[in-house]
């Protein structure tokens, strides 16, 4: 399937520029093949693949970012290399002053132009204003070198039998000086421009750094190839032709290919939306051109002949299936897996591997974005009243995403938001059908997650109600039943004084008083079991101060005040800290223990010690109890332990549950 793309005037001009470059690059090989030569891979790389790669990247950048300086530089480089090589090839077969002159300097100028994009990637600007003098100096020397190559007097390099028609003998001295300085100055330029890329990489944001890593890799590859050849020459070792040509081929096309890969994989310059058709048709063009030349060369002659007709017929037969096959490969690389069955199977496998329902929305968003090669995807799960229950986003979500409702059994459970691959680019009908099918499957998982959340919320309400009821019951027992029993005990004690002459009644009153005192003790134990008394007497902060004051090594860090807390949160915070401090005192062998309470949207309690930790040992009942107390309120407990200490942190939500990832 070919994705529709509308080329504007600039895009059509850029496409024509690439077509001209491709025509010149192929034309440069025709005279060699006609003369019976077998070009080496290094020659094919520098004469065909390098200009095509540079021109393709340049044309695409021009089409999508007309003001970006890298596009014209790459396009001009590719066109110059192709023009110079074609002129040189024809000058060797049919010597002429014009083709010989063009072949002697144009391709070298194009190769030099390839260096300058290093200063401008990825955003089209210099690293800073301080680089302007270097750019002016490098551009000036490069211009002088190009002019010097064009007006050097004497025989033409491409046609030694002919003199340079534009040679200036009077400037032979300055020209010789410029050309003698070329190796040193160009070497310095390469090093400085590579340093510019490394400097950008060091200062760049993570996404831009991943983009620049491809350019860094291509620069390292180029340097490695140079070092291999230098070392081989110093040792007097002759590399095999295949190895030497292969290394040279990788070196010369490394930068354009690295830029293309950065565009494809990291959306550099926002132009990857047009790469699919361009790559597919570019690959078809290269394959069919090679097939045509191979058939014609093998069957004989490049003139109009039966061989040409056979080649043309073979190309026509191969074109359609080859285009479809290459387009499918390119689409899968650029836009990900589009086969519904494979995509659904992969999504099912990812969900099947999950243990916690909390991870479902994030896994779904990641799976959709990565599998379809989208900039970002977001799964929103809604409560029954329409409020947002969970949000999980993967990647970068644009301001105007494509939204698909998630419905299960006719009830809306959320939505799936996906970013377009490029601004203004719409999904095809097939992709929209695929996304709709995905939304149906995702809705099932979203419904399960919502039911799980509702169950948790119900449990949390039960816990809160239970603790509130315990607080009320403790208050009633402490303030009502307790004082009445105490008054009854006092009445019995005072009544015994009037029963001195009735020892039987005095004994009965004494026994009854014992029962009352025993009941009071039982009541006190029951009240303490319902809720720590210090919480009602001192509040959470005061209760924690009282608890920590019993231990010399404990340092307490508390806020000045806390907002009103539910009974469940107070009890959970107190019990978790009490259990954690008790564990430190019993098992950690610590010299210091820090207890802290902080308040933001949630209540966060933390205990940290400098003991020996408990890595490798199984967590006990106390640790499990702390975790359950946090989770039954919708919170979480995290434990970090090592040989230098342990940190336990509990986060207790104050309001509704929030799930944003």
From TrEMBL:
Histidine kinase/HSP90-like ATPase domain mapped to chain residues: 568-656
Source organism of this protein record: Planotetraspora thailandica
Organism lineage: Bacteria, Bacillati, Actinomycetota, Actinomycetes, Streptosporangiales
Domain of life: Bacteria
Gene Ontology, cellular component aspect: membrane
CDD domains listed in its UniProt record: HATPase_UhpB-NarQ-NarX-like (cd16917)
The keyword Cell membrane is annotated on this UniProt entry: no
Kinase keyword on record: yes
EC number of the protein: 2.7.13.3
Protein name as annotated: histidine kinase
Enzyme class: transferase
């Amino acid at each position: 399937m070919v994705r529709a793309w509308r080329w504007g005037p600039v895009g059509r001009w850029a496409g024509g520029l690439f077509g001209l470059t491709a025509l010149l690059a192929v034309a440069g090989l025709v005279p060699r093949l006609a003369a019976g030569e077998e070009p080496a891979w290094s020659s094919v790389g520098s004469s065909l693949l390098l200009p095509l790669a540079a021109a393709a990247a340049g044309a695409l950048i021009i089409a999508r970012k007309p003001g970006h300086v890298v596009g014209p530089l790459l396009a001009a480089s590719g066109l110059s290399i192709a023009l110079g090589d074609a002129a040189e090839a024809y000058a060797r077969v049919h010597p002429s002053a014009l083709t010989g002159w063009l072949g002697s300097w144009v391709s070298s100028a194009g190769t030099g132009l390839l260096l300058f994009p290093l200063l401008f990637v990825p955003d089209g600007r210099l690293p800073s204003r301080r680089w302007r003098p270097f750019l002016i100096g490098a551009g000036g020397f490069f211009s002088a070198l190009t002019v010097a190559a064009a007006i050097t007097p004497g025989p033409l390099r491409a046609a030694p039998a002919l003199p340079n028609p534009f040679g200036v003998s009077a400037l032979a001295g300055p020209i010789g000086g410029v050309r003698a300085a070329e190796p040193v100055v160009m070497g310095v330029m390469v090093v400085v421009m590579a340093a510019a890329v490394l400097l950008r990489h060091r200062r760049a944001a993570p996404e831009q750094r991943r983009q620049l890593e491809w350019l860094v890799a291509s620069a390292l590859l180029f340097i490695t190839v140079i070092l291999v050849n230098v070392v081989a020459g110093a040792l007097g070792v002759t590399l095999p032709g295949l190895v030497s040509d292969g290394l040279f081929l990788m070196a010369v096309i490394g930068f354009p290919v690295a830029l293309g890969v950065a565009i494809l994989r990291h959306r550099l310059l926002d132009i990857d939306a047009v790469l699919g058709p361009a790559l597919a048709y570019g690959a078809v063009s290269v394959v069919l051109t090679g097939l045509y030349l191979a058939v014609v060369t093998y069957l004989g002659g490049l003139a109009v002949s039966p061989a040409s007709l056979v080649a043309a017929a073979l190309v026509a037969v191969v074109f359609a299936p080859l285009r479809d096959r290459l387009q499918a490969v390119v689409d899968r690389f650029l836009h990900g897996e589009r086969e519904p069955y494979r995509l659904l199977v992969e999504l099912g496998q990812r969900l099947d591997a999950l243990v916690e329902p909390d991870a479902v929305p994030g896994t779904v968003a990641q799976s959709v974005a990565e599998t379809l090669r989208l900039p970002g995807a977001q799964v929103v799960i809604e409560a029954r009243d329409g409020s947002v229950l969970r949000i999980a986003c993967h990647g970068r979500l644009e301001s105007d995403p494509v939204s698909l409702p998630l419905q299960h059994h006719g009830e809306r459970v959320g939505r799936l938001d996906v970013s377009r691959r490029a601004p203004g680019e719409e999904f095809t009908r097939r992709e929209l059908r695929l996304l709709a099918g995905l939304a149906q499957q995702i809705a099932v998982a979203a419904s399960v997650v919502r039911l799980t959340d509702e169950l948790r919320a119900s449990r949390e309400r039960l816990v809160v109600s239970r603790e509130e009821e315990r607080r009320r019951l403790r208050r009633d027992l402490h303030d009502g039943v307790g004082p009445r029993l105490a008054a009854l005990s006092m009445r019995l004690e005072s009544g015994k004084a009037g029963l001195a002459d009735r020892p039987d009644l005095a004994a009965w009153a004494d026994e009854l008083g014992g029962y009352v005192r025993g009941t009071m003790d039982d009541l006190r134990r029951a009240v303490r079991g319902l809720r720590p008394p210090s919480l009602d007497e001192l509040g959470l902060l005061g209760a924690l101060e009282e608890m920590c004051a019993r231990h010399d090594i404990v340092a307490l860090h508390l806020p000045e005040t806390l907002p009103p807390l539910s009974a469940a949160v107070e009890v959970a915070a107190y019990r978790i800290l009490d259990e954690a401090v008790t564990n430190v005192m019993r098992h950690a062998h610590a010299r210091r223990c820090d207890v802290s309470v902080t308040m933001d949207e949630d209540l966060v309690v933390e205990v940290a010690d400098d003991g020996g930790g408990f890595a490798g040992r199984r967590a006990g009942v106390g640790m499990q109890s702390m975790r359950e107390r946090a989770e039954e309120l919708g919170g979480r407990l995290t434990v970090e332990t090592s040989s230098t200490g342990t940190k336990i942190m509990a986060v207790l939500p104050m309001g509704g549950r929030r799930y944003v990832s």
